[in-house]
Amino acid sequence: AAGTGEFEAGISKNGQTREHALLAFTLGVKQLIVGVNKMDSSEPPYSEARYEEIKKEVSSYIKKIGYNPIAVSFVPISGWHGDNMLEPSTNMPWFKGWKVERKEGNAEGKTLIEALDAILPPSRPTDKPLRLPLQDVYKIGGIGTVPVGRVETGVLKPGMVVVFAPANITTEVKSVEMHHEALPEAVPGDNVGFNVKNVSVKELRRG
């Protein structure tokens, strides 16, 4: 936030800007967009100097965490007035646009929506063996035992034979559901529940 004192609070020792950037990197978020918001309430409004000051400081911090600043788009915006959100703003004629350089291909644009569109979708490791850490195991009347979790690698389909570790139980998957809809297959990133044959809830646990 570009407002007086707001950016300083966010980038301070226990500030949220710092915390969110570090969390994102720690959780494996590889691509970053820095939206410098509230440009309408900088001093003076829509100040290029304020934007450059923030960009310099945030670049230096994210570099320390492990991000490469030249692969990060910086966009001065005002969510309240809509500046540089969907269309280039006339209030910041000094802003010539954002640019990112990365080995998968460079990108450039003027707005936040373009920066979002330039994010590269992650590759889904469907070719690897199935790995699905269990978040929970439910017993559902009339259906039976339903383990729930997120597919990390591989593919989960009805009819597959799966092994639960560390109990080393082998069983067949009867059905796979996401948001109460049956799926022909679940891929990495999907949070699913799946029904298994002849396994009691007591035999399985989260983890």
From TrEMBL:
InterPro entries: EFTu-like_2 (IPR004161), P-loop_NTPase (IPR027417), T_Tr_GTP-bd_dom (IPR000795), TRAFAC_GTPase_members (IPR050100), Transl_B-barrel_sf (IPR009000). GO terms for cellular component: cytoplasm. It is found in: Cytoplasm. Keywords: Cytoplasm, Elongation factor, GTP-binding, Nucleotide-binding, Phosphoprotein, Protein biosynthesis. Gene3D superfamilies: P-loop containing nucleotide triphosphate hydrolases, Translation factors. One of its GO terms (molecular function) is GTP binding. It holds the Pfam family GTP_EFTU. SUPFAM superfamilies: P-loop containing nucleoside triphosphate hydrolases (SSF52540), Translation proteins (SSF50447). Residues 144-207 form the Translation elongation factor EFTu-like domain. Residues 13-121 form the Tr-type G domain. Coiled coil: none annotated. CDD domains: EF1_alpha_II. Its main location: cytoplasm. PANTHER family: TRANSLATION FACTOR (PTHR23115). This is Elongation factor-1 alpha. It comes from Bactrocera minax (Chinese citrus fly).
